[in-house]
Amino acid sequence: MFQQSKTASQIPLQQLQRLRKRLHDYSSGNSTLGTTVVSSGSQELDAILPRGGFLPGQLIEWLSEGDGSGASTLALQAAWQAVSLGGMLAVLDHAEFFFPPAASTLGIDLDKLLLLRSGSAREEFWALDQLLRSPEVAATWVSLGHCDDRHFRRLQLSAEQGGTLGCLVRSSRMLGRPSWAHLQLLVRPVPLQGLVPPGTPLRQLEITIIRCQGPGQGKQAVICFPQ
Asked: CATH no. for residue 84?
């Protein structure tokens, strides 16, 4: 899914203000944001989450143990679930690895997908902050590198203000570092278990709750996911 895209149109950040009208057209008021539980898209993961899912306005850190861990896809799938409450899914793609046709195979409606590509880390943070604050954006997905404590706190407040679900895909090297995320999940691939025929196009992922608000820290879920 995350490979060089030659077909997706790029949207310069300086045009972000022009997108406000388009975002508003998709807004349904978002009156339920902040109170309605949003499924992660996986029953196994929902079963171990403190509220049985995510809350709009939360920041979720998806910690990946490297390329192919499944964290990026799981985070995108969870972000898409929030769109059912109204609004759009925003994707920030600084590295230009996001491939919209592959996202479409997950059931994502590209008409409700807003893809932005920044020219610098500073622009990316500014755009992320604005998207999290927007009530017309149901969820934001981004692969986020270094983020200092002050900026991280600002992102948390922006998500809470906008009622936007923020899915931050980060390296597992961030484990143990200060975090303002409401939930921190570690995703890693594990060998397939059970009676699975050879050549089956599945992979098995183990998700561990590293940090959360409420009970659940340390709980694990194992799910099967398409290759």
From this structure: 3.40.50.300
Please state the three-class secondary structure of the chain as a single string: CECCCCCCCCCCHHHHHHHHHHHHHHCCCCCCCCCCCECCCCHHHHCCCCCCCECCCCEEEEEECCCCCCHHHHHHHHHHHHHHHCCEEEEECCCCCECHHHHHCCCCCHHHEEEECCCCHHHHHHHHHHHHHCCCEEEEEEECCCCCHHHHHHHHHHHHHHCCEEEEEEEHHHCCCCCCCCEEEEEEEECCCCCCCCCCCEEEEEEEEEEECCCCCCCEEEEEEEC
Number of compact structural domains in the chain: 1
Residue 5 lies in a domain: no
At 182, list the tokens: 């409401």
Range of the domain at 52: 13-226
- Print pLDDT tens along the chain (227 aa): 554 333 334 455 555 555 544 444 444 344 333 568 999 999 999 999 988 999 999 999 999 987 777 899 999 999 999 999 899 999 998 888 888 998 998 899 999 999 998 778 888 899 999 999 998 999 999 999 888 899 999 999 999 999 999 999 999 998 888 889 999 999 998 887 665 556 556 778 999 999 988 788 999 999 887 66
pTM reported for the whole predicted model: 0.80
Name residue 166's beta-bridge partners. 59, 140
Number of residues that make up the chain? 227
